[in-house]
Amino acid sequence: MISLLCHYSTVFYPECWKDVAAAYNISHIFVRGNSETIKGFVTDGPAHKKPRNLVCLVHPAEGQKYNPKSLFDYIHPKEAIYAFGPDDTIRSWINDFDQADYIYIPTPGATELYSFITAAMVLYDREVKNGSRRS
């Protein structure tokens, strides 16, 4: 089972997250950081058995504290929740999991990308490396 955990902010785009989830067969999108319920999203924590692995995407500039692996070299776990959000928010999520891996997407420049775009990149990488085929 693969789920996404994302941070709600003023630039949260629900429809974009739903598109990413639909494209990669994601069962749940958990949202933290908001006080209102967003239609189609789980906002109060997992309602099912939670994977023990958390995979956190960190910005390369912030990542040195975590010794992250490049997405190019990362081997994805079978089951995980992939977390996307600001560094301080990700740190607050770690205690909920048995293991946390840190990854970053190497880019030619230190550019900021919307979280839903990086989610699509990470999930595509997961599918390619796991040999998943779509018809």
Key traits:
135 residues; alpha/beta; Alpha/beta knot; six-stranded parallel sheet; 3 helices; 6 strands; 24% helix; globular
Outline the structure in words.
With 135 residues, the chain is an alpha/beta fold. It has a single domain, classed as 3-Layer(aba) Sandwich (Alpha/beta knot). It has three helices and six strands. A six-stranded parallel sheet has the order 2-1-5-3-6-4, with helices on one face. The chain is globular and about 30 Å long. The chain starts with a strand and ends in a 6-residue tail after the last helix.
Please describe the topology of this protein.
Blueprint: E1 2-7, H1 14-23, E2 28-32, E3 53-57, E4 69-70, E5 80-84, H2 87-93, E6 99-104, H3 115-129
Parallel strand pairs: 1-2, 1-5, 3-5, 3-6, 4-6
| Low-pLDDT windows of residues | 35-39, 43-48
The CA-CA distance between the termini, in Å, is 20 Å
The gross shape turns out to be globular
Strand order of the largest sheet: 2-1-5-3-6-4
CATH fold call:
Alpha/beta knot
* Strand residues, percent: 15-25%
Q: Mind telling me the CATH class?
A: Alpha Beta
Largest β sheet strand count, sense and barrel closure = 6 strands, parallel
Give helix % range.
10-25%
Give helix and strand order, one letter per element, not per position.
EHEEEEHEH
The oligomeric state of the chains shown is single chain
The overall number of domains is 1
